[in-house]
Known about the structure:
By secondary structure, the chain is mainly beta. About 5% of the residues lie in helices and about 50% in strands.
Amino acid sequence: MRTSAFKRARAACAILLLGAPAAAAEFKPESAGTTTIPAGMNRVYVLDPALSHMVDGRIYVLDAADLSLKGMLEAGFAGMMLAAPDKRRIYVATTFYERLTRGKRTDVIQVFDDQTLKVIDEIPIPTGRAQALSYRSLFQRSSDGNLLFIQNATPATSVSVVDAAGKRQLETPTPGCYGIYPAPTKPLRFSTLCGDGTIGTYTVSSNMQSSERKTSAKLFDASADPLFIHAERDQDGYVFLSFKGKLLRASLDGESATVTETLDIIPADAADWAPGGYQPFAVDPKSGMAYILMHPGNRDGAHKNPSAEIWAYDIRGKRLVARSPAANLTSLTLSAVDPALLFGVNAIDSKIERFMIDAGSRQISRAGEIKLGETAALVEAPR
């Protein structure tokens, strides 16, 4: 019995060995290579700080046409992203620790080429930048694109002004204020929101050795109705949104800021509704249409709640135009090249969603999605 069993096993091995060369000939290993993102591709950038392992934040690059994934960049620890299509650059202000989670801290601005997604430069910055969820207003650039503005918090607040080409730097104290809003036509000027309801405006000297501050009158009530730190550019200034659903149009070009108009977006029959999220609204500067993430259950502490609807509000006509179902969104942005496209972060289901805007009714409908990331926070579609 043992001899017979041994013979059968030996025959089976022989058959396997005879078949091995044929199987090996059929195996075709994948070949590794490199590619570039087409210069003309309209992109959507998604920053995910990866909150469960924050030393490993990521930035995803998607094709705006179909939300297909085209590449990924490292964002380090609590990185902030800024896309600059005119210079073909992606800037990432971030932190690295010598022992990954401890040790010497190094803060830098990484400069990526937006086609190869490779680091082409690195600018050391002071180790005081705000390590916070990525908001657009914490990392900005001047109107001419030559200066980068970085929010610091140690917890004392200041703004680092960085000459991206010459590497010159200036740290400007901004006590009691937070957020950066570059002047639309003055490259050496930026403003910041202050806790006493004023807006501080800073003008940097041409040699980047000093700055001068001018403080506005009280423009909002930070206790009764605070402003979201997220703001949107309008044709002639900025649009801010309050927790209770008011739009403030502000002029930030002058030496001191002014509010030019305040609009209440919430009608009487929707008094229980309020805006919410991290990037809670987007504005089309040409049409003056604002798209706002809204949810029911207005109460203190609900200002980061995800959406139930997107509201379309006509700023110039001063009226609510449309309400469209859109659940679980916390961030929203409008395509810079196609005013009929919105992109949102669905934080509950870890998805990036694409929306079409009807040009007549302003009703919004979903037109695609991709499941992506873990804790995506910021979405940008600069081209």
